[in-house]
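Dock acetyl coenzyme *A; give full complex structure.
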Amino acid sequence: MSKINDLGIAKLIYDGKTTELPVFEGSEHEKAVDIRALRKETGMITYDPGFVNTGCCKSDVTYIDGEKGILRYRGYDINDLAEKCEFIDVAYLLVHGALPNEKQHAEFSSNLNLHSLLHEDMRHFFDAYPDHAHPMATLSAMAVSLSTFYPELDDISLQENIDYKVTRLLSKLRTAAAFSFKKSIGHPIVYPKRSLKYCENFLNMMFWNPVNDYEVDPVLAKALNKLLILHADHEQNCSASVVKMVGSAGANLYASISAGICALWGPLHGGANQHVIEMLQRILTEDEGDVHRIIERAKDKNDPFRLMGVGHRVYKSYDPRAKVAKQMCKDVLATMGVNDPLVDLAQKLEEAVLADDYFAERSLYPNIDFYTGLTYRAMGIPTNMFTVMFAIGRMPGWIAQWLEMREDPHGRIGRPRQIYTGHAQRPVI
Ligand code: ACO
């Protein structure tokens, strides 16, 4: 669809010379100055650590208004999608640009099951990792390993095979994630079942075992669908940018996604969901549930500690995903009859954050990671798997962003510049 309006010219005046730079806006009226000719015209580059003001592409996939707390995938509001869709519909939407009709849904679902098995040789990889291996490391290794088993993915011109590639990736990495959990607890792995839908299959692979039969609870399957939808895309975030950066060098989709998984693992990004729970547990055990000490630590400029699950680069109001996640957390706990002291503590911490000037002045609110971990915990998913859940959810977003980047006629290898501040040339003595 790619709607662009030209808005005129911005003028940069420096050292007596005027440089004209085109200004344009996208379909939601976000304005940008096109600086592509800047260095050629002026010899200068821009300086923008963390790319806070830098747009790296035009994109049709996801729209965020951080001030108003709006998130839309392909024009659909996140609340609407979370309420009415299954995760695989949203995955299809992100990758193909439109929600599937019934026939497309059935085909996609069946393809996901068709490609759900891991090659048996890959299954043996799990035996070589120590039991305490973090499942995000394993998942990243599995993602890049897929490129050795399915090398035809390297041929990016095979557009007709794109569905095939996408379903393999979505389905096999979900299987790998469940295998890594089984390995970490020393249980036999559980193979995917053709009769089960995407989320149900994952829960079955996680929780079925030979001595304790397992029936998938529809409440949990619904909650998992919603959680994965909340995670599914977030435009040019850190991990998506990594996926695209790696892909911009011509690397295959599996390699690009493997790198994205590593980026997501970081505690300032998706890894925060694990750290939120660990932080809450520390407050409970070390501070007897008193949230004020940790708030003071977060505000202390001499202490590098940050409140996990709070703050966001783009959202300067309540993260719309956190709103859905908070309500869902309450619903899941109520339905399952779980009483978790960490949930009450999280609410106390949120109230303290919202009442404190430090956080208000900086527009810091709970983000998606604040409540999702508590829901995963109630579902029986262990803490070190939380970011893996995020990665499974984010997979369609990474794929959609990667495909868009590859199809962009203006796409170039990602390669930022720098301002060198080191020594001038000096001789070796
Ligand atoms: N606790 C305390 N202070 C914070 C926090 C926090 N969680 N987050 C930001 N601040 C403060 C900073 O110290 C800074 O204060 P200053 O202006 O006095 O120097 C100000 O708020 C702005 O923060 P920046 O670091 O400039 O914001 P940035 O956009 O670079 O970082 C980030 C965003 C990384 C998410 C940050 O808010 C953070 O570290 N949050 C905690 C980790 C977290 O929850 N990450 C998950 C994010 S959601 C996701 O990626 C899926």
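Observed: Strands lie at 5-14, 17-25, 31-33, 62-65, 70-73, 76-77.
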